[in-house]
TrEMBL record:
Keywords: Decarboxylase, Lyase, Pyruvate. InterPro entries: Pyr-dep_his/arg-deCO2ase, Pyr-dep_his/arg-deCO2ase_sand, Pyruvoyl-dep_arg_deCO2ase. It catalyses: L-arginine + H(+) = agmatine + CO2. Coiled coil: none annotated. One of its GO terms (biological process) is L-arginine catabolic process. It comes from Natronococcus occultus SP4. Belongs to the PdaD family. This is arginine decarboxylase. Its cofactor is pyruvate.
């Protein structure tokens, strides 16, 4: 695996699951089965913020992801943030995710604090961090989901 793509989106719908599905569609990953992993970036892996995923393989296959996701019922706000940085020498790196019913500034501050805390646990020399924040209001009578995903490589068969 040599590429991790960071994608994001929001979606609103009459149910929680439908709003999540709509947010996945906005990010371009609605047709895959997502498998969440913890937040370590392997060495010698490129990370690119792309917004919407390209075609990553056949429908129904598995995608390995780090996921920040918040869903709220309206009226309210859902915010999700994903931060990352890598070693300066092409070594490993970290993703950190934060989400909740909070404003854009609060979720960004919290994800930056989490990433800094994770860095303190490791003896790697880190480069500058990158952050993606997705935030959206939910109108009364609807659910809204905001998400940001780090998608590891291409899809893989489940069966």
């Amino acid at each position: 695996m040599s590429m991790i793509r960071v994608v994001w989106g929001t979606g609103s719908a009459p149910t929680k699951m439908a709003s999540y599905d709509a947010a996945l569609a906005a990010a371009g990953v609605e047709n895959y089965n997502l498998v969440s992993v913890s937040s370590v970036i392997p060495a010698n892996t490129d990370v690119e913020a792309v917004g919407t995923a390209p075609d990553l393989g056949p429908v129904g296959e598995r995608l390995t992801v780090v996921e920040a996701r918040a869903t709220t019922a309206g009226p309210g706000r859902a915010s999700a943030a994903l931060a990352w940085n890598q070693s300066v020498d092409g070594g490993p790196g970290l993703f950190y995710e934060t989400s909740g019913e909070m404003d854009r500034e609060d979720v960004e501050r919290r994800v930056r604090e989490g990433l800094e805390s994770g860095q303190e646990l490791r003896d790697w020399p880190f480069d500058e961090p990158s952050v993606i924040v997705e935030s959206s209001r939910a109108e009364a009578g609807t659910y809204t989901t905001a998400l940001a995903l780090a998608v590891y490589g291409e899809s893989e068969p489940i069966c």
